[in-house]
Design brief:
Length: 449
């Protein structure tokens, strides 16, 4: 992982946020005292929480974590009283664009301290100079076109030389090429995410791919092979008569009791691969969707920056009736299919898909977490999908996603308990980014403020 570390702000801003008088000297250690540290280990199945805890942060690293009586607080530390609060790792959005400073602020305000950054096409160009901004783990696709193996291997090596952290392995890679490319990416220290076509996802598992993205893509193995291959030839058409939509309609008609679904769920659950559904792409097509423009973060976002945004007045897309019915049916089908995969034991990562199809920075990851709970995760397990599961999935990820000594100091302090309601991840009191206490209010302030 090659994080893009933001510049550290002056401690005076942090102290303004804490509403205390600025000291003469600056503290080298930050101490969070009195809160409950929420455990996110073991895919959210561990419950080794620490009540009345002390978390010591020095530089960009967590120095110590433990009960108050066991962790001495340095006399020169800047102490933040977190009594009654809950301390969790900063969140990761595993598939998201960052196009400008407003996007960066929206992520940070929402507690997202890292993203796997997707750019190009409908998502626009990468804005890599945000200050402040989340840590960036760069993703780039390869295998969009058919080519000899040697050419695909050179493409992976070029991506690694450019500092790309994760290779998105795409539709035109054949099974033998997929295995060789995945192996080379691993040798170069890169993670891999599959969005396959000519290769099956079963072959992707055999090749050792780290994760798959998009429910509709990695569910292609459920469909007849000729249907899947037709989608690989034309994967992005919005024509309801296109191969993609013929497959989508087939997927929508799939019964939850279909034996193919149960068998594939078992394969996914018994493999080490992680799934990233990107439910957010169809969130607006669900009956319980709320208008994202009414979220506090939306005040700093521009409609023209977002691909196919929701109407600010209605909160929905302006689709014709046929397309709207098709999208709504597909959205409900995705939830049913993912519920089967989760029951089969599949591991999940949270990725919003921002900013395609009306997904929005910061806002849409919360929708993703809510959907993960709908398919059967506990709130703690959903939290792990946006934190510790990334470290477990990508071998080169580094020590992130847990509040433990030696881990990067990306930390949220919450006013409400996320173990009971994943929506409480929005009740943020403080955001700490690589050891820096941010002034959260200023992140979404406008000039009038």
């Amino acid at each position: 992982m090659r994080p893009c570390h933001p510049a550290r702000s002056a401690w005076a801003l942090a102290l303004v946020a804490l509403a205390v008088a600025p000291p003469v000297a600056l503290a080298e250690t930050l101490a969070l005292v009195g809160g409950t540290v929420v455990d996110t280990a073991e895919r959210g199945r561990s419950e080794a929480d620490i009540a009345d805890a002390v978390v010591l942060i020095e530089g960009d690293e967590i120095l110590a974590v433990g009960p108050r009586e066991t962790v001495p607080i340095p006399s020169a530390a800047l102490v933040i009283d977190t009594s009654g609060a809950f301390i969790v790792p900063g969140l990761t959005d595993g598939f998201a664009a960052i196009n400008n400073q407003s996007y960066a602020n929206a992520y940070l305000y929402s507690g997202i301290t890292s993203i796997i950054a997707v750019s190009g096409g409908r998502r626009g160009e990468l804005f890599a100079t945000a200050d402040p901004g989340p840590h960036l783990n760069l993703l780039e696709g390869m295998g969009r076109e058919r080519a000899p193996l040697e050419e695909h291997l050179r493409a992976v090596e070029t991506l690694a030389a450019q500092g790309i952290d994760i290779a998105l392995l795409m539709y035109e890679l054949t099974p033998d090429q997929l295995a060789a490319v995945t192996r080379r990416a691993e040798e170069l220290g890169m993670g891999t995410i599959g969005e396959l076509g000519l290769s099956t996802y079963a072959e992707g598992i055999a090749a050792g791919i780290d994760a798959f993205v998009h429910t509709t893509r990695y569910s292609l193995d459920l469909a007849p092979r000729e249907m899947a291959q037709a989608v690989a030839e034309q994967p992005f058409s919005d024509d309801l008569e296109s191969p993609k939509w013929i497959y989508y309609k087939w997927l929508t008609a799939l019964s939850p009791w279909d034996q193919r679904l149960a068998e594939y769920a078992g394969l996914l659950g018994s493999s080490p691969v992680s799934l990233m559904p990107t439910f957010g792409l169809l969130y607006l097509d669900l009956p319980w969707a709320e208008n994202p423009w009414e979220h506090p973060v939306a005040r700093i976002l521009r409609r023209e920056d977002i691909n196919n945004p929701a109407d600010p007045e209605t909160g929905v897309h302006d689709n014709d009736p046929a397309h709207q019915a098709a999208y709504s049916a597909l959205a409900r089908s995705e939830l049913m299919i993912e519920e089967a995969y989760r029951r089969g034991g599949a591991v999940y990562l949270a990725g919003s898909g921002t900013d395609v199809w009306g997904t929005m920075p910061g806002i849409s990851l919360q929708h993703e977490l809510e959907a993960l709970v709908r398919i059967g995760h506990t709130p703690r397990e959903a939290l792990a999908c946006a934190t510790s599961n990334f470290e477990a999935t990508f071998a080169s990820w580094g020590k992130v996603g847990q509040v433990r000594p030696g881990y990067r100091a990306d930390v949220l302090v919450l006013d409400r308990d996320p173990r009971h309601d994943v929506g409480n991840l929005e009740a943020i009191r403080h955001v700490i980014l690589a050891g820096e206490l941010l002034d959260r209010r200023r992140l979404i302030a406008d000039e009038a403020d």
